[in-house]
Amino acid sequence: MITVNADGKIMVRRCLVTLRPFRIFVLGIGFFTLCFLMTSLGGQFSAKRLGDSPFTIRTEVMGALESRGVLRRMSDMLELLMKRMDILARLENSTDFHKGDEARFPLDRFQPAAGLMERIQAIAQNVSDIAIKVDQILRNSLMSAKMGDGRRDQCEVPRDPKYPDCAGKVEWMRARWTSDPCYAFFGVDGTECSFLIYLSEVEWFCPPLPWRNQTAAAPSPPPPPRAQAAFRSDLARLLELVGTGKESLSFMKKRIRHLAQQWLRAARRLEQKLKGRQRDQKHILVHIGFLTEESGDVFSPRVLKGGPLGEMVQWADILAALFLLGHSLRVTVSLKELQSNLGVPPGRGNCPLTNPLPFDLIYTDYHGLQQMKQHMGLSFKKYRCRVRVIDTFGTEPAYNHEEYATLRGFRTNWGYWNLHPSQFMTMFPHTPDNSFMGFVSEELNKTERQLIKSNKVGSMAVVYGKEASIWKGKERFLAILNKYMEIHGTVYYETQRPPEVPAFVKNHGLLPQHEFQQLLRKAKLFIGFGFPYEGPAPLEAIANGCVFLQARFNPPHSSLNHEFFRGKPTSREVSSQHPYAEDFIGKPHVWTVDYNNSEEFEAAIKAIMRTQVDPYLPYEYTCEGMLERIHAYIQHQDFCTTTSPPPPPRAKSPAMQSPPSVLALSPNATHLVWSPSASRDPHAWPPVDSLQVWVSETRHACTETCRRHGLVCEPTFFRFLNKKEVFLQLSITCDSTEYEMNHLYPAVAENVHECYLQKEPLLFSCAGHNSKYRRLCPCRDYREGQVALCRDCV
């Protein structure tokens, strides 16, 4: 059996108390505690006063609560250490080493140990006292925070019938206020009062809180007079605004420079035509969304490779027109620039803008529209009436109305914005439901026109198509054309000739714009193979004295039968590659034939070779025409103060009489016109006396009906004929009359004598037809060469 010397036991026990490393460890704990107290409490008391920041209260309370927990744990640890020391002392007192060993181990060796125990007890007591004091301070601070700033945690959700969504929004904020940092940016800190402050002062779902500092609304001084727009005479500043860094921007600037003199001459002519009329200068943001990196910017890399340039042509012309009209412009092509100019708060886009929108108008595209919706929060709904969407192919009302599009199967990836349909601005006048923006083609003076006519090569044709894929499968047409004409192409390639282009075609490769213009000035024929649709090149060719030959589509192409149009927010049926050229220009400048009929195709080529044409450009595609059109839109289009539609009629007593109709039967009794005795609103635009009401045939849209009478459909006038009395004036029998949401109404189903009126003004539409209905169509006159404007619209 192993025996242990008693002196050895005593040595071990004394080492546990007197060993220097152990003392250092205990003192280290005390020192750490002191440092922690100085840092934690010093930070607490040196912090900003409560309420200085939306984060202050929450940060201080949470940090102090954690500090209090640490203090308690350290106090418990020191008390436990003190108890263990006391156990050791009692253990030593129970042994017999005090009886005869004082000479070897003097009693004064225990004095340091006793003093150390006393110090540990004192530290533990101090830590415990400090924890109690911190707890009291925190309670007092929290109480002050509750009482300060209107007792922030004692707010109750108001029950105000004027704000029915308040309670639901507060509930949402309780669960989701941390989902976006923008809420904290506006002062939300998780308390009930901060929710109500935000929902009443930043958003508008709750009533103002009575205890908030609501300064008496002193009558604000009248706003200073708006600066007047003055026509500009130099485009240098615009070139700076467009910026650099993208091939697409370089292309647009080259176009602006190339047409600069034509733009300046057109601006002077329009200025003389307006005769010094006063025009307010508008603050306009132009955000080209499809050029942002976030949208992919697929166009810039393709500028030098034959990619589509129609959109960039249009944007360059829009910028030039807005600038020359004298308005203040800001141009952005990045999401970061857009956010900065709009005043978007930091976060994920759920909050409104930090300040009122500084722009009167915003011109953008569908990509930019989506970016604005994602980052403007509720401000998007508030300010969307100021947006103008550049939309190449147009958006019909049936696709624009979100609820209706969802219920009736018209919803696409590009529609359902609930904008006024005229806020969409197209490249060609597809449907009068949208505003026709357009672009410009280069004009020729008399000398240039004569020079072109004398230099024309009667047997030279240029093919419309810079991408090799357009030529694929067109060998039969090209072989027929090659029998009569020398064929030229401008197909892009890098190293070797594209195999889709036959050897007998003289391919120039991708040409700069001015060289392409020179090629068109020599050619007799500009021929399209069905794609691309509705680009600017055919108008440029016609303006340079070419005849444009294009394919007729049978059946017409639409979103129902053609992949290119599938998903686009329109049901428009495209009867040819360029419907505008077919409908608004026509022969002898435009020939539309069935390419599937070789005999018809060959006969058209022979006839074209015998035909002499002069260069021709519609006025609406000149610089002056575009300036005139955009000027009229800016001056007269206002979608932020639209008039409310008349409510459905109520039952009337026999004594009540309907007010006299503003419409009257025309002298030949075929249609309705504005009554001579009816009053006219001098600010109405277009002027109401240009209105004519015609009834369509079944299967005919109002667009076609008005065109057949030499007029254009005007959706603004639908509100005047959306009344039961109009059916009676047109001698239409109505056994019943109903208000419903339908983009074809007002209309009549004659076989059953049922009449229908429009319930939703956003669905008033010139487009659309049905075999069941005859539609009531509002038509107006238009200026020659300017279909977007009536005769008295400027």
Please explain how this structure is put together.
By secondary structure, the protein is of the alpha/beta class. The N and C termini lie far apart (122 Å). Helix 3 packs antiparallel against helix 4 (111-151). Among the domains are: 154-210, no CATH class; 235-436, no CATH class; 446-616, Rossmann fold (3-Layer(aba) Sandwich), CATH 3.40.50.2000; 663-780, no CATH class. The strands form 3 sheets. Strands 14, 15, 16, 17, 18, 19, 20 and 21 form an 8-stranded mixed beta sheet that branches. Strands 7, 8, 9, 10, 11, 12 and 13 form a 7-stranded mixed beta sheet that branches. A 6-stranded parallel beta sheet has the order 2-1-3-4-5-6, with helices on both faces. It is globular.
Short summary:
With 794 residues, the chain is α/β, with parallel strands linked by helices. Helices cover 40% and strands 11% of the residues.
